[in-house]
Amino acid sequence: MQHLYNFRMSELEQWFSTLGQPKFRAKQVFEWLYQKRVSSIDEMTNLPKALRQQLKEASALTTSRELTHQVSKVDGTVKFLLGWPDHVTVETVLMPHDYGNSVCVSTQVGCKMGCTFCASTLGGMIRQMTAGEMVEQLLYSQRMLDEKEQRVSSVVLMGSGEPMDNFDEAMKFIDIINDPNGLNIGQRHITISTVGLVPGIIRLADDGRPITLAVSLHAANDELRSSMMPVNKAYPIAKLMDACRYYVEKTGRRISFEYALVGGKNDSLEHARQLARVLKGLPSHVNLIPVNYVPERNYTRTGQDEIQAFLEELRRLGVNATIRREMGHDISAACGQLRAEHAGLV
């Protein structure tokens, strides 16, 4: 049984050939899937009835279902919890901004990276998401926006999981949503986040895609970073920065660095100075993130005055930095938290 959302256009054309169908049928189906966003094969009314029956027997459309969703009363952020037939669940978040609607997609069920401030890693990593399952997450948000005659304008692969640990499927997902016959979301409006898997950063640089790379840094010395992010033991900061410089040289694009501020742990002015030294000479932007409270992690949020002082110290040292606007603060906002609550992990 084929999953129709799991095909690039070229792959769909090849599959239709194996069915004895002309290639133009693939384009018709692709447009039904992504431009008209039908919920069943029977709605593809310009296909012959016999072909529709053949597709229903050989393929599936939506394979997930919505288990629950939460809507922020503060900013309209919507968090979906979706379930699949093998009983796994993932989260997707729709975030409305002044400049458009952004969707945060999960690339894995759970996560094995073990970052101590994140709820996604609770319970470990269960399995990879396919490109088609990532597409389904995006379409849940787009169908909600269809009711308002709006569209998804940007996508971030920052949900549960490590995209670089599911590289091929993540890139396939990007190809599918970027296709001009479908959703036509420009690659410059797509961001991929990583905890710092160096081979993935190098591979992305060599691919030459004009997407945005976001690196979760969160500490600027190896001892502290390793205590917060076990991946640092395999790819310490010096090796990570070498890969980041290679990425900038190959692509000409600056890198976004994510820095979650945790009270009393990585938020002193000395930590800001360490960060400035690590990033010196590297075209970059730092997103300061007041850490989301996750009960089992027992981390405290940095105070507002301390956040502002950290920001001002970075700017004084020539670092391009901003404080990220918090979205969905009144719902289960921390990455993986809604899934963890549903699974009884918290």
Mean pLDDT: 92
CATH topology heading of the largest domain: TIM Barrel
C-alpha end-to-end distance: 36 Å
Major β-sheet annotation:
10 strands, mixed
User: In CATH, what is the homologous superfamily of the largest domain?
Assistant: Aldolase class I
Instruction: Provide the number of structural domains.
Output: 2
SS strand fraction = 15-25%
Low-confidence stretches: none
Helix content range of the residues, please?
25-40%
Structural class determined from secondary elements: alpha/beta
What is the alpha-carbon Rg in Å?
21 Å
CATH class identity of the largest domain? Alpha Beta
Number of helices: 11
Number of DSSP strand runs? 14
What overall geometry do the principal axes of the alpha carbons give?
elongated
* Strand/helix succession: EHHHEEEEEEEHEHEHEHHEHEHEH
Question: Strand order within the widest sheet?
Answer: 3-4-5-6-9-10-11-12-13-14
Please describe what this structure looks like.
The protein has 346 residues and is α/β, with parallel strands linked by helices. The chain has helices spanning 9-18, 24-34, 49-58, 131-146, 167-178, 198-207, 222-228, 237-251, 269-279, 304-316, 337-343, and strands spanning 2-3, 59-60, 65-71, 78-83, 89-97, 100-104, 108-110, 125-128, 152-157, 190-194, 212-216, 255-261, 284-290, 321-323. A 10-stranded mixed beta sheet has the order 3-4-5-6-9-10-11-12-13-14. The model has no long low-confidence stretch (mean pLDDT 92).
